[in-house]
Amino acid sequence: MANLRGNPKQPTSYVLVAASSSFLVNVLHFFLSAKARKASGLKYPIPYATEEQAAKDPKAYAFNCTQRAHGNFVENQTPFLGALLISGLHYPTAAAALGAAWVAARAAYAVGYAKRGPQGRVAGFLVSSLSDLVLKGMALWTSVQFAMAAYT
Question: Which domains does the chain have, with CATH numbers?
Fold first, then answer.
């Protein structure tokens, strides 16, 4: 059986740090959404303010922004984790660096969207999207290399 502790001096350890730090971004989203929900006065189980509420009340609009940011994060976290872990099998240092960039950018996306609305998410979006795209390319290439090695 493999040693589950691993070698903390190996670059693959940093891939795991990047992966697990993404969970903290989800916690950040929870706090941002909870704060905005309380400020807006919208009660559970309402997932979003209506269009009319958001148009009349800046706090309801801000709540919608935090909810949408959180939804977007949840939509993107699983594919990110898959790409990170697969690419980390062959390119651990690059994958860890790109993973860290993605996590930091997603935190900036969350805070920017919560504070400034859709325009506040642009920088975080650009960095996270670029990091994610490169990770997915590396994951695909890693998979192809593994498949080719299986037939040689």
Answer: 12-38+64-150 (1.20.120.550)
